[in-house]
Specification:
Elements: H1 8-33, H2 35-40, E1 54-57, E2 60-66, H3 67-73, E3 74-79, E4 85-90, H4 91-106
Antiparallel strand pairs: 1-2, 2-4, 3-4
Helix pairs in contact: 1-4
């Protein structure tokens, strides 16, 4: 790993990466606490989960959602083996996810 002391631009990019990760995590947690959003990502109508989870999929913060509504809530980034579940990056965070990908590419 290259030193941020010797390469100030690298240090700046790493700091920006950390800041964006924090913003993305906060935004996703707010979405998951939103009852309207959380109810959309349930596997079956009426099903109750104790808690919805977000996770990293190839550098993107995603949630699992049923195929029938996945494209309505965001950009599909992957599928389960069965194909019934999609891994979706919510629309409200896609732009920041793009920024993070660009920063990681620059690093």
């Amino acid at each position: 790993r290259l030193s941020g002391d010797k390469f100030p631009e690298l240090s700046r990019l790493r700091q920006k990466e950390d800041e964006l990760l924090a913003v993305l995590d906060n935004s996703m947690q707010q979405l998951l606490r939103n009852k309207s959003f959380a109810s959309k990502i349930l596997s079956k109508p009426g099903e109750r989960r104790k808690r919805s989870e977000a996770f990293d999929l190839d550098g993107r913060l995603v949630v699992s959602a049923p195929k029938r509504i996945a494209s309505d809530i965001g950009v599909i980034r992957g599928y389960s083996k069965s194909g019934g579940t999609c891994y979706v990056e919510p629309k409200s965070i896609v732009h920041r996810g793009d920024e993070l990908s660009q920063i990681r590419e620059d690093i």
